[in-house]
Amino acid sequence: MTDAAREPTGVSAASAPSAAPAASAAEVMVVALARLLADREQVVNGAASFIPVAAILLARETHAPDLVWLASAVGLDARPRRLPDSTLEAPLWHRAAMHMPQLEDFWSYATNGRWLGTFCVRGAQIDRFGNANNSVIGDDPQRPRVRLPGSAGLGDMGSLGKRLLFWTTTHDRRTLVERVDFVTCAGWLGGGEERRRKGLAGGPEAVVTNLCTMDFEPRTKAMRLVSLHPGVGLDQVRDATGFDLLLPAGEIPTTPAPTAAELALIREKIDPDRVIDKEFPG
After folding, report:
1. Residue 93: helix, strand or coil by DSSP?
2. What is the secondary structure of 128-176 as a DSSP string?
3. Are 222 and 129 in contact (CB under 8 A)?
4. Measuring CA to CA, which residue among 12, 60, 21 is closest to residue 37?
5. Percent of the chain as helix, strand, coil, to the nearest 5
6. 68 near 77, Cβ under 8 Å?
7. Where are the alpha helices (DSSP H) in the chain?
8. What angle do CA 52, 71, 183 make, to 5 degrees?
9. Is the residue at 115 inside a domain?
10. Does 15 fall in a domain?
């Protein structure tokens, strides 16, 4: 992790109970992301973010019961019955302590530096320094090859000193690129101390994909492999990454697999309808 990163919370590789068999890639991602969330942390999910929402719900059911969640920047401390078909509509805000009108209230909290410190971020492109692109693909932003949905606030989240947790279900060379075509969300910019020199606090801390978990080397701020998900090899990750990924010292750990209790919570309580599988192509 980066210098300011917190230690992963929850079950560690050394202390994890024996894992249940046949966890899917989606379930491994949910658990890996959940273990990065701390009790009493204040977290916001983004649009179309079923895996982060499932991770937040799992963290609250396990090691972080007092995790504060603003569901899609609207429903404070929401308690949905199960993961709904949309992460931007009213069923997600079921039993919320309050509803926060996004345009009127949300941004005053997001920008004041004291609240809502953690954001879950996905990018169509993510580069080796944690910059994300959800705007355009192509060399000319005025005439892009592909026009993407846009920032949805990511430009702000990357500039306001937030703790950014990246995730993607498509770990491939189209997504993990040497340099993004357009910086929608500022990561570590060009690496090293550039973000600090620009006057930006916070920044990306982790990247959870369908193949592995990564962080950012403290000095260079380049993306670094932390662990390989169960059944995934190093060559597979290297072949799927569009830049030279830094490696940890020594033997590469395996991401702790979901426990039987974690899988039961995901499958029976949090997401019995398997909404998290929508995040995967095909």
Report:
1. helix
2. TTS-EE-SEESS-TTS-SEE----TTHHHHTTTT-EEEEEES--STTTE
3. yes
4. 60
5. 25, 20, 55
6. yes
7. 25-34, 50-61, 107-110, 154-157, 194-197, 234-239, 260-264
8. 60
9. yes
10. no
Query: Which pTM was predicted?
Result: 0.90
Q: Among candidates 188, 230, 173, 178, which has minimal Cα distance to 32? A: 230
Distances in whole angstroms, Cα of residue 24 to Cα of each of 29, 30, 54, 216, 266: 9, 10, 14, 26, 11
* pLDDT in the model for residue 28: 98
**Considering just the CA atoms, what is the radius of gyration of the chain in Å?**
18
End-to-end CA distance of the chain: 32
- If the chain, 282 residues long, is cut into consecutive pieces of 10 residues, what is the mean pLDDT of each piece? 39 44 92 98 91 97 97 92 90 91 81 88 96 93 87 88 96 98 96 96 96 98 98 98 96 96 97 94 72
Boundaries of domain holding 98? 3-7+21-279
**What is the Cβ-side half-sphere exposure of residue 103, based on CA atoms within 13 angstroms?**
0
Residue 157: both structure tokens together: 């989240």
In whole angstroms, give the CA distance from residue 243 to residue 210: 17
> If 0-12 CB within 10 Å is exposed, 13-18 middle and 19+ buried, where does residue 216 land?
buried
95: domain CATH number? 3.40.1080.10
Q: How far apart are CA 99 and CA 87, in angstroms?
A: 15
Q: How many domains does the chain have?
A: 1
Write down the residue that tokens 């060009």 correspond to.
190
